[in-house]
Amino acid sequence: MNNHNSARPNKAMNLEDIAAKAGVSRSTVSRVINNEPYVSPKTRAKVEAVIQEEGFTPNPAARTLVTQRTKAIGIVIPHILNAISGDDAYFSTLLRGITEVTTQRDHATLLWLEHTNDNEESFRRRILQNRMMDGLIVASAATNDPLFKHLIEAGRHFVTVERPNQFQEYTNYVTVNNVAAAQTAVEHLIGLGRRRIATITGNLNISDGEDRLIGYRNALEAAGIPYDENLVIPAQFNRNQGYLGMKQLLNRNFDAIFAANDAIALGVIQAANETGHRIPEDFALVGFDDMNIATQLKPQLTTMRQPVAEKGARAADLLIDLIEGKLESPQRILLPTELIIRASCGAKAVEARE
């Protein structure tokens, strides 16, 4: 006897079916699924048992209609070339921190990367018109980017991972004190006896790049060392810019370089190797970020460590708390930095001579 036809697939369960089987109302099932209050522990346990028994998965579209939330957040990275595959791994580390939290808190992510051939206005319009996201994390936007104004006017939830230059009273952000951190890095070089300290900057239209240049200037001023524009190479946060910046500095009489991030420092080392310069014997070098590449370089890189993954994680937590109405006022979170001393600054050699 052939029984193949006796096993028939079960009809897909819906909220009404779960409610009937649990002996509760449809609205009670909805409150349990959306983790809302006003459900007794006993009733909640009963509904959850039925859901688990039936392998029921709520319809995301239906849940969105009820909660007005998609449980998805966007990550916006404008004005950045090779943001994900860059030499310093900053953005991949930031994204790892963000997605660890979104996974823990049952949210999806939608990544927005602006390409060099993108029309800026069109890029921002696509973001603002998209209704698949409950909020946005904005990374490395230009200080005058109109996106912030549009987000505020549209009432959209957002968090930045840099200090905002505008609308600070409306903006939640997570960052580090880039001014103080850069000043500490340059003061370390000054303490090692360096006096002709050059810098290859990051993007100066981004607050991180701007603030690190301010910290560099503050350190020189505090030590009574004149600011020399010939030792300042405006650049961007990538290896090629460090390489080209080092080439520009070759005939400018310097004894140290503060690189605005580790990717820039990597380019400096590449150019130094090509031109026969020794680090730290000919000049000292300090970077910023402390990405994995810092310990793989020769010499290993002295650098200012910032907790990039934690920055992403805290930004994601902050945004989801904001979406869930848990924040009463804008939050400004500053994470700690630490100078990690390795061979590229020559500290051990200087100490040995003393």
Notes on the protein architecture:
By secondary structure, the protein is of the alpha/beta class. Helices cover 42% and strands 15% of the residues. The strands form two sheets. It has a six-stranded parallel β-sheet, with helices on one face. Strands 7-6-8-9-10-12 form a six-stranded mixed β-sheet, sandwiched between helices. Helix 1 crosses helix 3 and helix 8 runs parallel beside helix 9. The N terminus and C terminus are likely disordered.
- Following the backbone from N to C, one meets helices and strands in this order, namely HHHHEHEHEHEEHEHEHEHEEHEEH
Domain module tally = 2
Q: Detail the poorly predicted runs.
A: 1-10, 349-354
Characterize the largest beta sheet: strand count, sense, and whether it forms a barrel.
6 strands, parallel
Overall radius of gyration: 26 Å
> Number of helical segments?
13
Task: Estimate the mean pLDDT confidence.
Answer: 86
Q: Quaternary arrangement of the chains shown? A: single chain
User: How are the strands of the biggest sheet laid out side by side?
Assistant: 2-1-3-4-5-11
Number of strand elements: 12
Quick one: CATH superfamily of the largest domain? Response regulator
- So what's the CATH class of the largest domain? Alpha Beta
Strand content: 5-15%
What is the general shape? elongated
Look at the helices and sheets and give the structural class. Answer: alpha/beta
CATH topology category name of the largest domain? Rossmann fold
Helix content: 40-55%
How are the SSEs ordered, and which strands pair?
Blueprint: H1 15-22, H2 26-33, H3 41-54, H4 60-67, E1 72-77, H5 90-104, E2 108-113, H6 120-129, E3 135-138, H7 147-153, E4 157-160, E5 172-176, H8 178-191, E6 197-200, H9 207-222, E7 232-233, H10 239-249, E8 256-259, H11 262-275, E9 284-289, E10 302-305, H12 308-323, E11 332-335, E12 338-340, H13 347-353
Parallel strand pairs: 1-2, 1-3, 3-4, 4-5, 5-11, 6-7, 6-8, 8-9, 9-10
Antiparallel strand pairs: 10-12
Helix pairs in contact: 1-2, 1-3, 5-12, 8-9, 10-11
